[in-house]
Amino acid sequence: AQRVTQPEKLLSVFKGAPVELKCNYSYSGSPELFWYVQYSRQRLQLLLRHISRESIKGFTADLNKGETSFHLKKPFAQEEDSAMYYCALRGTGTASKLTFGTGTRLQVTL
Amino acid sequence: GAVVSQHPSRVICKSGTSVKIECRSLDFQATTMFWYRQFPKQSLMLMATSNEGSKATYEQGVEKDKFLINHASLTLSTLTVTSAHPEDSSFYICSANSVGSDTQYFGPGTRLTVL
Q1: Greatest CA separation for chain B
Q2: Are A86 and B106 a contacting pair at CB < 8 A?
């Protein structure tokens, strides 16, 4: 079975502070990990995926297989980063099926 | 590009009636569409995967006779909630993969309220 855990429901940080949204997963094989973001009144959209190893909007995430984690990080939070963030996993041979975590609401305040 | 629409955006119905929700890929052809359900303050739960021209694959615990899915074309999938009850009230979200891509593009969701 595959499972994604996001331990924090809400993360509140000041503008300019570093951000780390935690994600841990459980999967017996080699998963593909994603971060999705949902801004207020907008649809869910892909932020980044681990195989791309890219930085999007200043966010990065590294897959740590030893710790089964895929934490999302940004060195300096911006107000526009306030949104709901979901970590998701896709296992091998699962026909693109995604398993989502419960999400973390990031609130960036002045 | 890669826009997915859903209609209606919200619907209120009486208990016992059936409700149809449409999911369309506007600017691409979708070989696979997914239907999710999201309860307040909870995660998206996959209900079923549908492929154009074939029967949908339902997740464990999802009643296929209650949640009818039809994927008649490469740009349209429908979810019909039959004999709706108040416990079916939820936010239903669809997503779609374009041909040759494994990236899922999400629709805006449909809020169903059953009275």
Answers
A1: 41
A2: no
Q: Which of B71, B57, B96 has the alpha carbon at shortest distance from A43?
A: B96
Chain A residues touching residue B97 (CB < 8 angstroms): 96
Task: Give A3-60 pLDDT, tens digit per residue.
Answer: 999 999 999 999 999 999 999 999 988 889 999 999 988 899 999 998 887 888 999 9
Residue B106 and residue B4 in contact, taking contact as beta carbons nearer than 8 Å: yes
Between CA B84 and CA B89 the distance in angstroms is 8
CA dihedral A42, B2, A53, A30 (to 10 degrees): 100
Query: From CA B62, how far away is CA A75, in angstroms rounded?
Result: 41
Q: How is residue A92 written in tokens?
A: 């091998």
Main-chain phi, psi angles of A98, to 5 degrees: -105, 140
The structure tokens listed for B104 are 């899922």
Give the span between the Cα atoms of A12 and A24, in whole angstroms: 20
Residues of B in contact with A42 (CB under 8 A): 108
> Distance between CA atoms of B97 and B66, rounded to whole angstroms?
25
Residue B42 to residue A46, Cβ atoms within 8 A: no
